[in-house]
Description:
The chain is α/β, with parallel strands linked by helices. It is about 40% helix and about 15% strand. The chain has helices at about 10, 15-25, 45-60, 75-80, 105-120, 130-140, 155-165; strands spanning about 1-5, 35-40, 65-70, 85-90, 120-125, 145. The longest helix is centred in the middle third of the chain and has 16 residues, at about 105-120. The model has no long low-confidence stretch (mean pLDDT about 85).
Amino acid sequence: xxxxxxxxxxxxxxxxxxxxxxxxxxxxxxxxxxxxxxxxxxxxxxxxxxxxxxxxxxxxxxxxxxxxxxxxxxxxxxxxxxxxxxxxxxxxxxxxxxxxxxxxxxxxxxxxxxxxxxxxxxxxxxxxxxxxxxxxxxxxxxxxxxxxxxxxxxxxxxxxxxxxxxxxxxxxxxx
Length: 175
């Protein structure tokens, strides 16, 4: 799966959806391996147009994700009014499990994960940096976890080496 982030500037283009679909088709990529990530801030434009973009991409078989969920002002209405395939929960919700003061954050994160699961969206938590955080997020029912615990952003050659099994460093993820 390949995820591509788009900004509200991209959404301002009335031909945005057709350009995305045409590019996917031009390279003969199956639609179901592409995820289009849209941030909540992209909603600052026309809501009806935003919803149309999401629905059209989903109808074409492209996975659509709301990125950095919880950082924008429209969070709950955004997921109430639009069916998302994936809700990427912002890293600011990930508590430090060794900090007793993060009890409120743990409860909020657990609730958001449960809500995403209950409405039929896949929950993905960003910003997981430790085994303890991974275990906690997993215990809340989150199946997809992203963060430095698994890896940092990689140059192309390192990613290719890891995927081909020729990387000589530590690898915590599997393809």
